[in-house]
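Deliverable D5.2: sample structural annotation.
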Amino acid sequence: MSDILNKTIVLVLNPNWQAINIRTPADAFCQMATNAATALEIEGESHIRPVAWAEWITLPVRDGDNAVRTVHGAIRVPTVIVAVNYARVPKKRPKLCARTIRERDGNRCQYTGVLLRPDEGNLDHVVPRSRGGADTWENLVWSAREVNQRKADRLPHEAGLKLLSVPRAPKELPVSAMIRNAHGVAEWKLFLNE
């Protein structure tokens, strides 16, 4: 029972039904019980209705539904809730990591322009860490492994290299663009652009 309560399997929508977050059933139950959110009862694309907590706890558990057992009986775990007082869609920059730098740079070595498989490249600090370079969007680029080794702890011009483009932080995206349906919850497909 506690395992299901702590999985991030509840999609949170704003009142305009735009995805803004994911939560655990435990969080969703707390939001619903305090009237900060309502659950959506979803039966296909044609039947979607908001349901307040008082009614939700009386709904029958259908085949295939996740449920939590209580002393008063089973309570269906919602798959989607709507946050009542949260209208905006927050924006966020992708997490700074090798994958997002590689994606930003189009899988290309930023010194040679060669298209690389993920295992053929790695991160390069334009200004090496040994010379005060930071782990920032503006100082990290995707580079062919052999080019990065040849550059070593030098600046690009000292190694006879030139960047194809100036590295920049990506634009902030709506959080909904970064929400992934890792657990394959069918109802989320109605609200996510995957």
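Annotation notes: The longest strand covers residues 37-43. The chain has five helices and eleven strands.
The annotation will be released with the project's public dataset once the embargo ends.
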